[in-house]
Write a structure and sequence with these properties.
The complex is a heterodimer of chains A (about 120) and B (about 110). Chain A is an all-beta fold. Chain A has strands at about 5, 10-15, 20-25, 30-40, 45-50, 55-60, 65-75, 75-80, 90-95, 105, 110-115. The radius of gyration of chain A is 13 Å and the shape is globular. The relative contact order of chain A is 0.32. With about 110 residues, chain B is mainly β. Helices cover about 0% and strands about 55% of the residues of chain B. The radius of gyration of chain B is 13 Å and the shape is globular.
Chain lengths: ~120, ~110
Amino acid sequence: GAVVSQHPSWVICKSGTSVKIECRSLDFQATTMFWYRQFPKQSLMLMATSNEGSKATYEQGVEKDKFLINHASLTLSTLTVTSAHPEDSSFYICSATGQGVNSPLHFGNGTRLTVT
Amino acid sequence: SQQGEEDPQALSIQEGENATMNCSYKTSINNLQWYRQNSGRGLVHLILIRSNEREKHSGRLRVTLDTSKKSSSLLITASRAADTASYFCATPLYNQGGKLIFGQGTELSVKP
């Protein structure tokens, strides 16, 4: 089945630094990838839609300058948390969709970001 | 805002019992999907039911869909300790390229 690899699985960084999270579709091409954020015991909140070769589409309330998304190829999307602060600490999950309106999403295993 | 609401928020049962989780949504849908999330991990797709289907089975999973009530249920039969996880329903937004909106989730705990 379709596999999405997300890296790193966890990262600890200091306030003010930037962190890059990678999301790769290993055995299929993903023209669209989605980035979600999840707080403990809560549901997934969609942050942005990443489109290969074009600018990402951000959900309302998500700062595009804070969360930089790049989708340079059909198999790789990256999320960079810039100038991280402790409130950015969260679980970030990427996903990619298959072809067709009735295709499920394939998720990476998530990245646990802790900003100290 | 989240598309779906799920109940119960948490469910604790004994191994061998059945677990039922419910999901309600607000808008018209092409399909409804159920996902499972083990603690600290990504989500795994369980089952997709299309808007013209009323019931679907996959192993010990049974999903129903009532579009008139805008609701769905997930039944796990003969539960096992390994079924302990959070379960989410999700619906795609119309004409938005696979974008999914998730319900609040049900945290299932199956005690051995």
